[in-house]
Amino acid sequence: MTYVVPYSGISNRLGDDEIKAVGEALRQDTLAMGPQGKEFERLLAERLGSPHAQATSSCTTALFLAAQVLELQPGDEVITTPQTFWVTTWPLQARGCVIKFADIDPDTLNIDPTSIEPLVTEKTKSIWVVHFGGQAVDMDPVMEIAERHGLTVVEDCAHAAGATYKGRALGTIGDIGCFSFHSLKNMTTGEGGAFVTRNDRYAEMARALGTIHNYGEMLERDDQRIGPHAQPAYYKDAHVLRSYTHDYAGGRYLVGNNFRMSELSAALGIVQLGKLDRLNERRREIAHRLDDGLSGVRGVDVQHEKPYAHHVYHLYTCFYDPEVVGAPKDDFIRHLQEKEGIEIVIRYFPIHLLPEFRALGHRYGECPVAEKTYFEHQIQLPIYDHLTDAQVEHMIAAVRRGVAELGGGR
Ligand SMILES: Cc1ncc(COP(=O)(O)O)c(C=O)c1O
């Protein structure tokens, strides 16, 4: 079907400046581990006001690094939100952690801080929040709970590049922030992400573990030889040089991975980062126009920007009321898709109800707010930087027509 307002698979519209930057990077001696990556990291750290930012191949790999540097162990409990893309929890599952789902705030769809504390036990180690759709989680109460119980906090900022909480960049409030620069995100490097932290030790660990090194506490060896062989002067590789001079204390070390971003992605990221405010401003303009057009439609509520948040509208969420309209949400979505040509992608199916979590005993009824909101109310309309005014007006008119046709708003 050709949509009037398509949604899935739509990236930022790139310009000549992105094409030029990537073209120049293609002429470099190296396409990996070169100047673009270093510059992108420097600019990103500066932009976020963070001492450390490490470019990664995706947000998923940044999240895997987060779980690894926090040294989460099998059986450790981690509290997170059910209203996210499932990959938020994958590094936790991979490490054998026990995942506890807090419920959400039905307006922001973010984790509800009041539902976190009842889940804390002596096994809880960390809280993983997701700034849903580009609007900040209410971080102060989350950080207070974390401090009270000695927990770390990871911010999944996949939707939230450029968003703030009380003026502070998201990703810099908890212990670690993980960003996505996937093609669909507010700024893109094609595929890509970043691991951000204020903690020097986490930064040092992530730098090693994400770039094909391993990590462990080292002790200097008495004998600086391997058998009869002394260290040759021509070796450059620190890892090999250390083999002559050091041992891992207790033999214990963490195994690294290759989560690096390529030079081409970083070159694209440098240009996109320079446009981030403009790209976000365009999303905010569209969101405010939709808010204005939809407020006053009985049976549809708009989402509110919290006073503490600068919302960057990676997603535009609104709420349908089946009781007011007199028809279930699915009928309304069918109207928007089939009659109005608006491609609807609802994010996200509450992840505690995915088969892998049901197999662990999670069940319907565990997070009633997330469930009711998802099954009955939440809708996302398409949003991206190059939506036209005509498409935006079409969505407003289509929502009004849909509600009227389904019987509504009476
Ligand atoms: C909340 C959330 N976390 C993590 C990710 C993973 O991002 P990436 O595709 O960069 O691995 C996504 C992707 O959409 C996401 O929405």
Instruction: Give, in order, the helices and strands.
Output: HHEHEHEEHEEEEEHEEEHEHEEEHHHHEH
Straight-line N-to-C gap: 32 Å
Q: Structural class from helices and strands?
A: alpha/beta
User: What is the CATH architecture annotation of the largest domain?
Assistant: 3-Layer(aba) Sandwich
Note the total helix count: 13
Strand order of the largest sheet: 1-9-8-5-4-2-3
CATH class categorisation of the largest domain: Alpha Beta
Overall pLDDT metric:
96
Number of domains: 3
CATH topology of the largest domain: Aspartate Aminotransferase, domain 2
CATH homologous superfamily title of the largest domain: Type I PLP-dependent aspartate aminotransferase-like (Major domain)
**DSSP E strands, number:** 17
Q: Which ligands appear in the coordinates?
A: pyridoxal-5'-phosphate
From the alpha carbons, calculate the radius of gyration and give it in angstroms.
23 Å
Multimerization status: single chain
Keywords: Aminotransferase, Pyridoxal phosphate, Transferase
GO molecular function: glutamine-scyllo-inositol transaminase activity; pyridoxal phosphate binding
Protein name: Glutamine--scyllo-inositol transaminase
Cofactor: pyridoxal 5'-phosphate
